[in-house]
Amino acid sequence: MSSHFEAIGIGVTSQEEFGERVVSLINAGAARQIATKISEHVWTDPSGARLVAQVRNGKIDFLLPCLAGTTPAVPVRDVRLVDDETAMLELLDGVDGELVCPVAVELEDRAVLAHFGGRLETGSLVLAALAEDVTVHADAEAYFASQDDDGPKFAADHFIPSGSFQLAEPSPGWTPSAHALFAGEVIEVDTPVNTVTGSAFHRIRVRTIAGIELGVAIATTDLEQPPARGNVVTGTFFLTGRLGLQPTDPAEDSPKRRRWFRR
Fold first, then answer.
1. Which one, of 67, 40, 22, 30, lies nearest residue 245 by Cα?
2. What is the pLDDT of residue 251?
3. What is the distance between the alpha carbons of residues 212 and 110, in angstroms, rounded to a whole number?
4. How far is CA 256 from CA 10, 49, 52, in A?
5. What percent of the chain has pLDDT over 70?
6. Strands (DSSP E) along 82-200, which ranges?
């Protein structure tokens, strides 16, 4: 299983190289002031690879690798931060507004949400995912046939928010994680190249339960050939999303004009 960074074409061979590259990319990104001592920095590559950093007093205290989402936003409600990284929310069916499922995600704009008090009653979420373990099937029929006859059968458009609940006995201090098991039809395919690293990755659009669409990034080391349109992909995924939140009172001294990090 590749790392979340490798899923968007950012592969590194050492901790030192990782630190240097992250600092370089974040310095090159766009920035906005969230609060007096907190700023948000976003680097987006033409390939769709994205890094989001929250900076407090000149130091990174939150770093999120993700895929710049281009899918239709999904209505959500009861959005709330549950720890320093993860938010819980309810995904809604966009047609009739009915609950699809509660889910944990890591938000690109979590710094703004935290500044607002960490809660939002309703909103719209552009959902994306980084593949951790993925399998490709020719179509829905092939996916259904691949399942064990002795076990439960899952639809070719299922979505299980596995990180939102504990599978074993409750443990002290447990919090949800931004993971899900899902399957869906591939409706768009591309293999862009990260322009900074020169590494390619697969970027696909998947339609899953209730017609919800996600952008998904897959490392080429995990899947040599990209899926084709009409294929069904299934597996374990790390979920990210963007609510489109804006600071209410951005500082006049924009951090875009300053260097916040040192190599």
1. 40
2. 45
3. 22
4. 23, 20, 14
5. 92
6. 86-92, 99-107, 119-137, 159-160, 179-190
